[in-house]
Each structure stands twice: as C-alpha cells, then as structure tokens.
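Tokens as discussed.
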C-alpha cells in the first residue's frame, strides 16, 4: 500500500515537473521566435486601457505565464515607465492571456505526443536557420507539456477508484468555499496557475465510481478554478515587496480582480456551469470536461475584465486608498532607477529598461557637461568638484549596467538578433561613460591651469563657449534618442557633429594666429587644444550613439515588415 502511494506521488510530481519544464521551454522558444513582435507589444503598453488589456493578453500568451507579465508590469510601473491605470489594465489582460494554456491543454492529443516530441527534436537538431531551430524548440516543448499531462493522468486513474479519495472529493465538490481554498493553496505551492489548472483538467477527466461521469464534475471544478486564479496573485504580491507604492498597488489590483470575480461568480455556480456547458462541445462528461474547464477559465476572466475595464478609475481609487501617499524618487548615488533583475528572462522588456537606464545616466552626464562649461568659462571651483564627484557615480552606474547586460547575455533567452542588438547597447553605454570621462579630463586640465598665472583670451573664451553650446545640445538630444527612440533627434545629432568637426578645425587655426600675434600665451595652448579635442570627442561619442539607434530602428522596422 505504501509503495503504491509513493509510486503515485512520484508519478504525479514527476508529471508536474515535466509539464513545468515543457511550459518554461515553450515560453523561451516562443519569446525567441516572437522577439520582434514583443517590441510591438511594448508600443501598446503606453496607450489606452483597451490597448493595455490587449498587450497584457498577448504578452501572457507568449510568455505562457500571467505571473511573468504581472512582474513585468510591476517592474515598469516601479520604474515610472507606466502609469498606474496602464499597469492595472495590463494585469486585466494577463488574466485573459493565461487562459490560452488551458485551452491548449484541452486538446486530446495523447496519441500524437511522441511524434510531436520527435518532430520538434529533429527540427531543432538539424535546422540551420536560427528561427527554425526556435520553432523546433517550441514544438519539442509542446510535446513535453502534454507528456507531463499524460503522466499525471496515468497515476490519477487509481485514485478515482479509492473510496477514501472519492469521499474527500465529494466534500470539496459540495462546499464551494473549500474548493476555492484548495485551488488557492495548490497554486501558492506550485507557483503556476497554468500547472494547477492542468492538474485540475486532468483529474476532472477521470471517471467516478459509476465509470461514466467525472469524478469531480464541472460544478465541483469551478470553485477550484477560482482558487487557482486567486493563488497566482501571491506571486505578484511577493514581487512587489520593496518596490514603489504604485508597484504594490498594481499587485494588489491583481488580487482584487480575482477575489471580487470569485465572490461574484461563486453565488451562481450552477448557472455559470450551465452557460459554460452551452458554449462547449457536447459528449460524455469525462471526454468534454477538460474543454469545459478551459472555457470556464476564459469566460470567467473575460467577463471579469469587461466588468472592471469601465471601472478602472474605481480600481485606482481603491488601491490608492489601501496604499496612500505619493512615490518619492530615490536619487541615491549609484542607485539604478529602471533595471529589474526579475525581467532577465524577458529580453525585449529587459533591453528596453536598459536603454531607459542609460538615458537616465546620460541626463546626469548632461549636468556634467554644463558644469564643465562653468569650470572652463568662469573658473568655477564648485562646478569642478561636481564633475569629479559625479564621474565616480557614473562609473558605479556603468559598472552595474554592464553587469546586468552581461548577465542577460548568459540567460539563454536571447536570439541572435537580440544578442547583436544588446552588444550595440553595451557600446552605447560605453560611449555615454566616455562623455563623462572627457568632461573629467577637461576639468583636470583646468585645475592644472589654476596654479599658473595664465588666462584664456576673450576670443578663446567666446570660441569655447560656442563649442560648448553645440556639445550641450548634442548630449541633451541623445537623451531624447535613448528615452524615446527619437530618430529625428538622432539625425540632428549627426548634423551637429559635422558642425563641431568643422568648428574645431577653424578654431585651431584661429588660436595659432592669436599665438603668433601674442594675444594668447604658449602656456595656455596645451590647455586650449586639449579642451577642444575633448569637446570634439564628445561630439564623436554622441554621433556613435545616434548612428546605432538609427540603424537599430531601421532593422526593427525591417524585421516587423518581414
């Protein structure tokens, strides 16, 4: 008897392990195949509530996890890239998108599991093109997913014949609130509502003592299904710990969405079951109940979303009442504002946050450029100290950004195109840091000058002032390029870089003429030319960033068109 119990438990958990492994692999494969499309989804995030719902649904369908989408929404709202209503609408959509897994599972393909696995493996193993390999990976994972389900089903059949187990199931089926608690607990333990719903579908497909009807029945399965939906919100709540107030509000909205939906529907389970049966295929209960559960999952979340979307302002009011107050931006030195470690398994979203982080660093660098100008034109000691101190902060931030990108390279989630793009982003980050290095070099030269009885001529100061104006404009435009992917700003940067190159050439000649005329001293020549050289280099670094962003935009557009 004990051996049978152990065998059943190992079979159940082994099947669950195969299912979860297959689902994660399928998620990876789908992400790699749909890399360009994920960028399109990013564009939907910042639009209206309906687009947010759509983005949440599509993202979850690709990622095969509402928890992953929820974590993404929490990360974006915490970084300030999404407003609270937008993040909440994404949560609504995620609840719809997660029902696609149950719909897939409802297909009866037990006879085709091994052919699917073999075909997927052959495609993956022999394919030369990267996208074809990812398709093979997805097909292989799809087969593993169903192998896990089939394994769980095989070990569940003996349970249906156990009088003790049947008695327990009857109690759960007769007391809806008990079913909700069971479903919630299952999902909290497994950390995947898709997995627990798969177990539910499989178990409900087992025949009861009469050998004809489901051991659980649709009315018994629905409360457990509601509990599965509540349990998945725990992941979001855990992800929001230590995050901004809006991030915690977003997580709470996920819980409210599912709890209120459960509270509403639990009073009408017989009626709800009748509607589900009406829209589902007819046939023997054990043959169709898996599809019925999938349809109940979809109908519950779609209906709940339709109820809550018009009430989005109310949801915002509720969560802001629960967590009152305003978010205070933490501007601590060396602290990243956007990058989120939890999004490393979602490369498109992770790279978007990296660019936002680099843009944030570039804003700090813009301040460095302005203070460098003060140092040169006004011998401003406070400005000099600001530049030197800020350089240390930039180095810390740069180190953290590079470390994050390096980790992203090692995750295995990047396709070839994403790897190339990430390498380019890493170079962009390096160019931003080089701008700060050039500012520091100028300031160090000015500090050396201050120990001497020499000064720039008025002509030299005016010339450097005009050059600084061009450079400041370029660095400020780079922020727009990085933050908003502003190609017009990128083109403007390239034009300004040409102007700076021409200006530097002219100013060097003018300085030599002043030197010959005795207007400028030889002692200041080294300082003057060093400043011009560094300003010209800043222009080069800005142009390198602009070129990459323009080429990247073209590649993205071409990929989406293709």
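Sequence:
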């Amino acid at each position: 008897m004990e051996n049978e119990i152990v065998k059943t438990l190992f079979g159940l958990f082994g099947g669950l392990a195969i299912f979860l492994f297959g689902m994660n692999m399928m998620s990876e494969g789908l992400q790699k195949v749909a890399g360009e499309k994920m960028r399109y989804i990013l564009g939907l995030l910042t639009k209206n509530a309906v687009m947010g719902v759509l983005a949440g649904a599509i993202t979850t369908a690709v990622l095969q996890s509402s928890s992953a989408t929820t974590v993404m929404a929490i990360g974006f709202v915490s970084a300030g890239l999404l407003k609270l209503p937008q993040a909440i609408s994404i949560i609504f959509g995620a609840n719809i998108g997660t029902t696609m897994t149950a719909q897939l599972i409802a297909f009866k393909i037990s006879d085709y599991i091994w052919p699917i696995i073999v075909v997927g493996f052959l495609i993956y193993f022999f394919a030369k093109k990267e996208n074809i390999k990812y398709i093979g990976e997805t097909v292989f994972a799809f087969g593993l997913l169903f192998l896990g389900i089939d394994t769980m089903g095989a070990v569940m059949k003996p349970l249906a014949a156990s009088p003790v187990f049947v008695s327990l199931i009857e109690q759960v089926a007769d007391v809806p609130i008990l079913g909700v608690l069971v479903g919630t607990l299952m999902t909290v333990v497994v950390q995947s509502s898709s997995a627990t719903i798969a177990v539910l579908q499989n178990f409900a497909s087992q025949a009861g003592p009469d050998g004809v009807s489901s051991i659980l029945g649709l009315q018994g399965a629905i409360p457990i299904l509601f509990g599965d939906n509540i349990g998945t919100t725990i992941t979001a709540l855990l992800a929001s710990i230590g995050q901004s107030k809006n991030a915690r509000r977003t997580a709470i909205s996920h819980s409210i969405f599912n709890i209120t939906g459960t509270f509403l529907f639990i009073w009408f389970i017989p009626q709800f079951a009748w509607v589900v049966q009406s829209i589902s295929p007819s046939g023997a209960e054990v043959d169709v109940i898996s599809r019925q559960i999938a349809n109940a999952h979809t109908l519950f979340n779609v209906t709940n979303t339709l109820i809550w979307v018009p009430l989005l302002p109310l949801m915002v009011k509720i969560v802001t009442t629960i967590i009152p107050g305003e978010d205070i931006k933490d501007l601590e030195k060396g602290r990243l504002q956007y990058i989120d470690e939890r999004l490393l398994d979602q490369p498109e979203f992770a790279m978007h946050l990296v660019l936002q982080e680099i843009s944030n660093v570039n804003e700090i660098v813009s301040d460095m450029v302005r203070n460098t100008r003060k140092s040169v034109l006004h011998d401003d000691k406070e400005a000099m100290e600001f530049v030197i101190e800020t350089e240390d902060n930039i180095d810390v931030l740069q180190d953290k950004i590079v470390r994050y990108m390096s980790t992203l390279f090692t995750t295995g989630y990047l396709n070839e195109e994403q790897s190339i793009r990430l390498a380019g982003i890493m170079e962009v980050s390096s160019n931003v840091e080089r701008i700060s290095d050039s500012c520091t070099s100028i300031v160090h030269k000015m500090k050396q000058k201050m120990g001497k009885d020499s000064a720039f001529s008025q002509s030299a100061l005016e010339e450097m002032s005009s050059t600084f104006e061009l450079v400041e404009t370029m660095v400020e435009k780079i922020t727009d390029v990085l933050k908003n992917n502003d190609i017009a700003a990128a083109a403007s940067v390239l034009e300004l870089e040409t102007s700076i190159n021409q200006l530097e050439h002219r100013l060097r000649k003018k300085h030599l003429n002043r030197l010959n005329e005795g207007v400028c001293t030889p002692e200041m020549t080294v300082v003057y030319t060093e400043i011009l050289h560094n300003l010209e280099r800043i222009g080069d670094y800005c142009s390198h960033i602009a070129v990459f962003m323009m080429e990247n935009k073209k590649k993205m557009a071409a990929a989406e068109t293709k």
